[in-house]
């Protein structure tokens, strides 16, 4: 319709203006009337005519065709300004649908003005921006939503000058969030302020947005406003930085986390990780961890659910790269993942602002509109559930009791390894000379340790008392040993380090100090409790899946030295009854292997990996997609054990699951670098040949690439007999196949080998070319069509066949001459045309192949 109104204005003139409600008939003017009425009008004349129409539909069409009108008059600056002035008048239309339609076009018009009218840089600021900010307070909801979406798009594309943001946009938003402002408008304005923070930068946000944002966090009258603030709290923190977050925002965040509306607290739990990232380690440990425990123990199930989902990400913010052990092999100190580099990702990042077209704008507007609609929908839904907060308050004591019980059950997990290590150090008995030393009689008193004990029980008593304090279950009334107490213990024991027992104790205390310095024990206890079956009933049925999803991040935070704390949890998740939980672990097991290192991977992850190999296809696909990433981390002898199991990937629960086989082919290409030539020939070759004969063409295409890479790998090996045997088998299995599809596969493989230079042309000419040329007499036209295309567009483009006169070149030319006289017209065509002389050549594949 917009295009018709511009290019065919006479047709656009027919309609409601010519419709008589009394007679219920449409009066159709003659063709001469079309010419006399509209065709003789200028673009501005048509714009004026229909903008003044009493018909709403006509004015909507005018708004929709404004960009096209601008393009028509783009050569005349005065006409462009005249169109912009008419836009300002159209913005005063009393019909909301016209105003909404106009606002949808503003980003497109703004981009056009920036790209095509640089001589009038004030056009957007003078004519368009005032309309956008005025519509933010429009009485019609749809107009407001459209203007909010347009504003975000304009900011994202940097079409609004910084000065205009400070003087025209922000003041309007501040006014809209005033105490006496309309409730809906205030809520929407707060959401816009939060979303635009990352676009306008730290300076403007901190000076103009932050003070009003802090006020809105304390809005006592409207919980909708507080909820919007809570939902966007992390974004504001990430923009303003650590100092402003800790000084101005954290007090407000504490208030929101204890809000009397559960929806506000739930929003706080969801953004907890982002807030944590904007604070110091000390604040994160001393303040945020305690606050998070309160959310996890919240009376509302919805708050607890959100808190447990954010628990793993929150723990990951405690990570210290210097102590998390990110290198896989200690002996070479190199992370295999570093080989893949990040250059490609950086190169793929482009500035799209100068390449935005109308479709892109439309997508941005649509997405922004959806985001705006969710604010009002969620607010409405929130009011329906407010009563739940008071209902769950009666269960708070029960919930806290359950949490304490679970903490008791899980608090000993992380200390089991430490206790075992400490007891092992006592196995050697003391000699008579060691029974008396200065430590037993002359020492600085240790905190909370009874000094009245017998000499023969020295080690046992010290260990028991230390571990009782350090591993005390988390409880409000019984605090754990603090970092300061641990430091005092270590300091008091240091002068007596010569004693073997003391040395073992100091070692364990330092180990536990390092652990306490990573993650607060209370947080870890809650994370470990996520596998408790009761959690699925009291919190979330998918809580185990959330636990599995964040486990690599938690493992990275704790470091491989504390893996024993997570080992039991990981094994529990790996055997979970829900396949979605196991699938989540399967997709991340290769990442966990990098974190843990080769020894822990071989001992703890390989058995789990083996179990996933025999699981459902939904789980196996996670292992298969990262098969190369996992196997490359294993030692060669362990890696070779999986050669025998690769064949099992050809069998799936559903034979129609062809994507599974396609992924197998992709992974086998990568695995070629991990195995020797003999292993490739003995184990990978049969699988590759099987995939080349797959029923689905997408699987076969990847398999051709697999075979060609296999040829290249075997040729580069020291033993050349493997590649010769492989090519002979290609000839026997495919070139001489009784089915035409097998013979066609041989041509495809030869084409791929030639195109990718997997084999020197002289070797190709000796081992494969004679058999390839023999197919010129194949009885199936599809085979001959592909052969003609391969010879003409691939082989004859190689230097070996261009610049050197040899018998192979002559054989190829003779074969082409035979194909040029073929009875089939398609064969004759592809054998006759010059390579790349026509686009029809690109369709040869579709002619010569089948999907099923």
From TrEMBL:
The lineage of its organism: Eukaryota, Metazoa, Chordata, Craniata, Vertebrata. PROSITE patterns: HEAT_REPEAT (PS50077). One of its GO terms (cellular component) is cytoplasm. GO terms for molecular function: protein phosphatase regulator activity. Keywords: Phosphoprotein, Repeat. HEAT repeats lie at residues 169-208. Regulatory subunit of serine/threonine-protein phosphatase 4. May play a role in regulation of cell division in renal glomeruli. The PPP4C-PPP4R1 PP4 complex may play a role in dephosphorylation and regulation of HDAC3. Plays a role in the inhibition of TNF-induced NF-kappa-B activation by regulating the dephosphorylation of TRAF2. The keyword Phosphoprotein applies. Serine/threonine-protein phosphatase 4 (PP4) occurs in different assemblies of the catalytic and one or more regulatory subunits. Component of the PP4 complex PPP4C-PPP4R1. Interacts with HDAC3. The keyword Phosphoprotein applies. This is Serine/threonine-protein phosphatase 4 regulatory subunit 1. Residues 61-315 form the Phosphatase 2A Regulatory Subunit A helical domain. Residues 345-355 have a biased composition (Basic and acidic residues). It comes from the Eukaryota. Residues 324-355 are annotated as: Disordered. It comes from Buteo japonicus.
């Amino acid at each position: 319709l917009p295009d018709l109104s511009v290019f065919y204005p006479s047709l656009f003139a027919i309609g409601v203006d010519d419709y008589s409600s009394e007679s219920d008939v449409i009066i159709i003017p003659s063709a001469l009337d079309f010419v006399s009425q509209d065709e003789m009008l200028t673009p501005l004349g048509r714009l004026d005519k229909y903008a003044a129409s009493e018909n709403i539909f006509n004015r909507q069409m005018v708004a929709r065709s404004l960009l096209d009108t601008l393009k028509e008059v783009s050569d005349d600056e005065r006409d462009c300004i005249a169109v912009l002035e008419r836009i300002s008048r159209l913005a005063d239309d009393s019909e909301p649908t016209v105003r909404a339609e106009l606002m949808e076009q503003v980003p497109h018009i703004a981009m056009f003005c920036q790209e095509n009218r640089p001589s009038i840089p004030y056009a957007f600021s003078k004519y368009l921006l005032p309309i956008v900010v005025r519509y933010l307070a429009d009485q019609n909801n749809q107009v407001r939503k459209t203007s909010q979406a347009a504003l975000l798009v304009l900011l994202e594309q940097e079409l609004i000058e910084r000065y205009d943001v400070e003087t025209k946009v922000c003041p309007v938003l501040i006014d809209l969030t005033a105490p006496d402002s309309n409730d809906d408008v205030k809520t929407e304005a707060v959401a816009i302020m939060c979303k635009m923070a990352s676009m306008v930068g730290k300076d403007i946000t901190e000076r103009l947005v932050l003070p009003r944002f802090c006020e809105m966090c304390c809005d006592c009258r409207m919980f909708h406003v507080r909820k919007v603030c809570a939902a966007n709290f992390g974004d504001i923190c990430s923009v303003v930085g650590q100092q402003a977050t800790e000084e101005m925002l954290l007090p407000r965040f504490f208030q929101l986390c204890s809000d009397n509306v559960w929806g506000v607290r739930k929003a706080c739990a969801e953004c907890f990780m982002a807030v944590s990232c904007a604070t110091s380690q000390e604040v994160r440990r001393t303040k945020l961890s305690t606050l998070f425990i309160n959310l996890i123990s919240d009376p509302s199930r919805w708050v607890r659910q959100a808190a447990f989902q954010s628990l793993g990400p929150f723990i990951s913010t405690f990570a210290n790269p210097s102590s998390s052990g990110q290198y896989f092999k200690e002996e070479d100190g190199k992370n295999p993942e570093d080989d893949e580099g990040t250059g490609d990702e950086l190169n793929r990042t482009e500035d799209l602002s100068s390449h935005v077209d109308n479709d892109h704008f439309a997508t941005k507007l649509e997405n922004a509109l959806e985001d705006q609609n969710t604010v009002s929908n969620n607010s409405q839904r929130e009011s329906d559930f407010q009563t739940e907060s008071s209902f769950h308050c009666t269960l708070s004591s029960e919930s806290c009791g359950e949490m304490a019980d679970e903490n008791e059950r899980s608090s000993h997990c992380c200390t089991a390894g430490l206790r075992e290590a400490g007891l092992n150090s006592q196995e050697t008995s003391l000699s008579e000379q060691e029974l008396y030393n200065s430590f037993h009689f002359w020492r600085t008193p240790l905190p909370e340790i009874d000094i009245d004990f017998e000499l023969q029980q020295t080690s046992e008593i010290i260990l028991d008392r230390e571990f009782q304090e350090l591993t005390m279950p988390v409880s409000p009334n019984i605090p754990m040993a603090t970092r300061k107490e641990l430091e005092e213990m270590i300091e008091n024991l240091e002068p007596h380090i010569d004693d073997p027992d003391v040395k073992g104790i100091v070692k364990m205390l330092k180990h536990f100090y390092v652990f306490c310095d990573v993650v607060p024990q209370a947080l870890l206890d809650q994370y470990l409790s996520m596998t408790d079956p009761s959690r699925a009933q009291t919190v979330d049925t998918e809580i185990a899946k959330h636990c599995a999803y964040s486990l690599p991040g938690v493992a990275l935070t704790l470091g491989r030295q504390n893996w024993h704390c997570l080992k039991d949890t990981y094994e529990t998740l790996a055997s979970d009854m829900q396949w979605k939980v196991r699938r989540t672990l399967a997709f991340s097991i290769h990442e966990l292997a990098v974190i843990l290192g080769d020894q822990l991977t071989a001992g703890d992850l390989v058995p789990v990996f083996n179990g996933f190999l025999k699981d459902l296809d939904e789980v196996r696909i996670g292992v298969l997609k990262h098969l190369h990433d996992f196997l490359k981390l294993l030692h060669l002898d362990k890696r070779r054990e999986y050669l025998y199991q690769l064949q099992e990937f050809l069998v799936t629960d559903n034979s129609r699951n062809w994507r599974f086989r396609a992924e197998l082919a992709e992974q086998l290409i990568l695995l070629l670098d991990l195995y020797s030539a003999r292993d490739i020939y003995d184990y990978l070759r049969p699988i590759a040949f099987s995939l080349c004969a797959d029923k689905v063409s997408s699987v076969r295409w990847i398999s051709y690439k697999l075979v060609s890479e296999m040829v290249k790998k075997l040729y580069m090996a020291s033993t050349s007999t493997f590649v010769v045997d492989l090519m002979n088998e290609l000839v026997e299995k495919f070139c001489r196949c009784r089915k035409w599809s097998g013979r066609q596969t041989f041509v495809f493989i030869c084409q791929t080998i030639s195109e990718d230079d997997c084999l020197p042309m002289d070797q190709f000419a000796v081992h494969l070319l004679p058999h390839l040329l023999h197919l010129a007499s194949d009885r199936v036209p599809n085979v001959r069509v592909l052969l003609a295309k391969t010879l003409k567009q691939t082989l004859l483009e190689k230097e070996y066949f261009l610049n050197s006169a040899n018998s192979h070149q002559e054989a190829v030319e003779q074969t082409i001459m035979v194909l040029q006289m073929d009875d089939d017209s398609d064969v004759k065509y592809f054998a006759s045309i010059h390579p790349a002389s026509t686009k029809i050549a690109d369709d040869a594949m579709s002619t010569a192949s089948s999907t099923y």
